[in-house]
Amino acid sequence: MAAKVAKVFYLFQGMARFLARDKTEADSLIHHLGIGLKWIHQLGANRTIGFWQVIDVKIKSITAKSVQSAETLPTDCNTYDIAIRPESSFCIADHRIADNFFKSSQVISGDVIKGALTTMWISLLGLHNAMVDENLDSQRPELGRYFDKIHISHAIPGCQQIRPVQQPLSLVKMDDKFYDVALCEGAGLINGDAPAFAIDWKTDDYSKIAKMFGWPDVKRELRIHTEIDSEKRRTADKQIFAYEIVAPNDNIIWDAGLNLSAVPDSDRPKLVEQLQSLVAQGLTGLGKTKTYAQMELLAPNTTRPCHDSNLDMRDGVWILTLQTPALLCNPDCLIATESNQHDVLYQAYAEVFDDISAQAFFCYPIRSRGVYLWKRFQYPKNYQPYLLTNEGSVFVLCSQSQEKTAKGYLKTWLRTGLPVPKWAIEKYQRDGKPGNHWSNCLYIPQNGYGEIAVNLSIHWEKAPKEKFVSV
Hints:
This protein has helices at residues 23-38, 110-124, 141-146, 203-212, 268-279, 344-350, 371-378, 403-416, 422-427, 458-461, and strands at residues 79-86, 93-98, 101-104, 151-152, 156-158, 162-163, 171-174, 177-180, 188-190, 196-197, 219-229, 234-247, 253-259, 283-286, 291-298, 304-305, 318-322, 356-362, 365-368, 386-389, 394-399, 452-454, 468-470.
């Protein structure tokens, strides 16, 4: 007598998002999506031996509601705050740990935000590979005309409308206490011993400092994927790759800023209105996971930094801390010889700050490289990695001219970020456009790079004072 096998039914639910110009196009996409899903007869690893048969497919159409601002925005401002709320995990690939391992940054850079907005905008219009200009969208001419001039800062995870601040690399640890040595004269000892800079800290040390500067505990997930061989209908051999992704929660909002100071006053109200109508659709296709995120424009100063900047000179100096990476010193000048091997990097950074001289700095340069960056921004020139100065880098500056003039520079930099250096404008020029044009260089202030903080109070509050002895 044959045994009866019980049938077990499971219901799987999911969501598919897409952009459509009108109802006709939306109905067509839904219809063809349903046909495609019904072609799938079985799922899973055991589908070839009779398991996981697909019984039915049902699709329910839901029109996503636009995100409307809770308040009417003032139109006479040149700065606004931005709140971004990802609805699911995302991966903004910061750097590769290995060829098949992508680790996500917890920060959403300004270029990623502008890129996602551009892609969504062009898709809404039913276009492909279109350029953003005043002729792109008849409903948003001002936004198209000035889109490359607006500044969108990096979106940083924060809680309770407090935007974290990047901790300075001038912080050191000694005897379970943290000090800031930005104001110390040269290298030295604290309590008779050499302090530990951030590169030598442990995980618990980083956690303590992160809380001090307002950084929340952002959860991460590891997801493993494999390429599918379409001919064999199975996983391809040796083609596994992994994402370490950021998993958002309801308590964390990614805070960014919008600066419209480069937009004429007469066009600014229309641009704000048009940008609001665009961001009300949310961000589609964010990062490698193509995550959807809600995006909202807010009134100025809705979000406050965890630690405020102060433009007033203190003890004869300004201490500048990079909040995002910046293109600063010319890599062609970093050629050391026996006579200048200790001064070449100092001199390269000293030439960056116009009429303000750098007395000291705490930083580490990084290389941004890859085939994509070369083909996208440098081809047909020879491949050359970009040399960036990383976030957290500290520069102790004093004025070679009048304090008022130097303070004017700092005020501008605090508002719009450090400008692209003159050498980079010349070095990266291409196709008749300067090197600081968005098509020739990714690392420009309009994309959120070069954001700074000035005279953070921690430099004075955590100074070791009499505990420090120069060596």
